[in-house]
Write a structure and sequence with these properties.
Largest interface: A-B, 21 and 18 residues
CATH superfamily of chain A: Vaccinia Virus protein VP39
Number of strands of chain B: 10
Order of helices and strands of chain B: HHHHEEEEEEEHEEE
Radius of gyration of chain B: 36 Å
Number of helices of chain B: 5
Number of domains of chain A: 1
Number of domains of chain B: 3
Order of helices and strands of chain A: HHHHEHEHEEHEHHEE
Shape of chain B: elongated
Radius of gyration of chain A: 18 Å
Distance between the termini of chain B: 88 Å
Oligomer: heterodimer
CATH topology of chain A: Rossmann fold
Shape of chain A: globular
Helix content of chain A: 25-40%
């Protein structure tokens, strides 16, 4: 079947987005050549509050945001566990969607993001959470943090926006900043799923010169497993999650 | 149900578990504090810190520029007042009876006066050129050090190559370096076939006083063209 390039939007937007939001969303898109410039790409997506919410969560409703965050915390509990004495780091925390409810269940929550704009929105949402700290990352990696510091490092709904080398960089860095015995969690949507394959095919239909920088890219179980094992994690497990996501978890050896 | 005694193993286990939890919590609090301290200290090595330092330096330079501008404005006002006073004085002299009475004698005297020597040439006779240029170190300032380096980039708009750069400061020539890399300029304006490395720098003395400054480039073919001219004030030693 011939592909109809005329019908393809520059940026894949969520269903239900208003035409105004859609227009602003597309206007803020960067080209694929800018994909490695994560700071620029995500700062552009965070210029306005609702645009930032759409970029990281797909909607602008606080109730829905809380609900999806709660769902993710349940996933964390069932895969790596969350304890009241845990010092937690989220990589790519965006507007603090997960951090807000998770900070009630751990000792201290650190949210790291490469976009200062996103962190600005997060700061507003977390102003009544004294056990939270936001950190702007200078570049790919966790160079701002000391080693052997965290009980849990997780990264959710971020890998699809990163190149593979940068995904592995965050896995390696997580190993460094985790204390011995600390746990990690990374997820992405799977290529081997209906949703993953649809996203993949939609991406393939973009005209070469119009591929947007934040085009979602899937992972495979093998890919995530290899990253964790190569980084040195033990007890590496791959989880099939709802919404056709896959997650890799591991433990830094004692 | 009997009350537990101090020797009750269940009670001791519960107490130990509570103590273990407290220790774990203190250890976790210590690690969270360590991260905060690292963040406070570590900022010195991050890109954000570098940007903040650069912003602070730029703000300082901006404040200095405003101060210089204010001082230059006051100096111009003083010079303007002096010029106005001299013009008024000249007008009074020309309107006086004695000036008018002596006018024929002055005309006669001028016939027998030797021709005055030609005024000293302050600048080499250089024609203006049309350049695309930018100066990284602004020459519009009060010069307080004994030397200054003007840095920038330039190319003639007629497409010829620049073969040398110099500054003519009131007749004194200071040769500069040219052909310096300016990758961001090339990225913005596109490749410049005749001037692939359009950067230059010229260091010149800044003796006290007011001087005319002419930034000049020698273009393909040998002739010199000035890029920009201005008057500068040098006041070494003044804070």
């Amino acid at each position: 079947m011939a592909l109809d390039h005329e019908d393809i939007d520059l940026v894949r937007a969520w269903p239900g987005m208003s035409s105004d939001a859609q227009a602003r969303w597309q206007a803020a898109a960067s080209s694929l050549g800018d994909r490695s410039d994560y700071k620029k790409v995500w700062d552009r997506q965070s210029t306005e509050s609702d645009l930032a919410w759409l970029s990281v969560a797909g909607h602008t409703d606080e109730g829905t945001l809380e609900l999806t965050a709660r769902g993710f915390i349940d996933t964390l509990r069932s895969t790596v566990g969350v304890g009241p004495c845990d010092v937690v780091l989220e990589i790519g925390c965006g507007i603090g969607r997960v951090g807000k409810p998770l900070s009630k269940e751990c000792l201290h929550w650190f949210g790291a993001d490469i976009s200062a704009g996103m962190l600005g929105h997060a700061a507003g949402r977390l102003k009544d959470r004294p056990n939270t700290t936001l950190v702007e990352l200078a570049t790919v990696g966790l160079q701002e943090f000391p080693g052997d510091a965290f009980d849990l490092v997780y990264c959710t709904i971020v890998f699809m926006h990163l190149f593979e080398w940068d995904r592995f960089r965050y896995v390696e860095e997580s190993f460094r900043v985790l204390r011995p015995g600390g746990r990690c969690y990374f997820d992405n949507f799977s290529l081997d799923s209906d949703h993953g394959w649809n996203v993949f095919m939609e991406g393939s239909r973009y005209p070469l010169e119009r591929r947007p920088a934040h085009l979602s890219m899937s992972s495979s179980r093998e890919e995530l497993g290899v990253y964790l094992r190569k980084a040195g994690f033990a007890d590496v497990r791959i989880h099939d999650l709802p919404n056709e996501l896959i997650a890799a978890t591991g433990r830094k050896p004692d | 149900m009997s009350n537990p005694t101090p020797d009750d193993p269940n009670l001791r286990i519960a107490a130990l578990q509570a103590e273990l939890e407290a220790v774990k919590r203190r250890e976790a609090e210590f690690r969270a504090k360590m991260v905060h301290e690292f963040l406070d200290r570590g900022e010195r090595n991050t890109y954000i810190h570098v940007l903040r330092e650069e912003r602070a330096a730029l703000m300082k330079r901006e404040q200095e520029s405003f101060a210089d501008l204010e001082e230059l404005t006051r100096m111009l006002e003083v010079e303007g007042e002096k010029a106005a006073a001299l013009e008024a004085e000249l007008g009074r002299i020309r309107r006086s009876w004695s000036w008018r009475l002596l006018a024929p004698l002055r005309a006669l005297g001028r016939r027998f006066e030797p021709r005055p020597p030609a005024p000293p040439v302050e600048r080499a006779p250089v024609e203006p050129g049309v350049f695309t240029y930018y100066l990284h170190t602004s020459p519009f300032r009060i010069y307080r050090d004994s030397r200054f380096t003007l840095r920038g980039w330039a190319w003639p708009q007629d497409g010829r190559a620049v073969t040398a750069v110099r500054i003519n400061l009131g007749g004194r020539i200071f040769n500069g370096r040219h052909g310096l890399e300016e990758p961001e300029v090339i990225a913005r304006y596109g490749p410049q076939a005749a001037n692939p490395r359009p950067g230059f720098e010229v260091t010149f003395d800044t003796p006290p006083g007011r001087h005319s400054l002419s930034l000049e480039a020698q273009v393909e073919g040998g002739e010199w063209r000035w890029i920009m001219r201005t008057s500068i004030w040098c006041e070494p030693g003044r804070a």
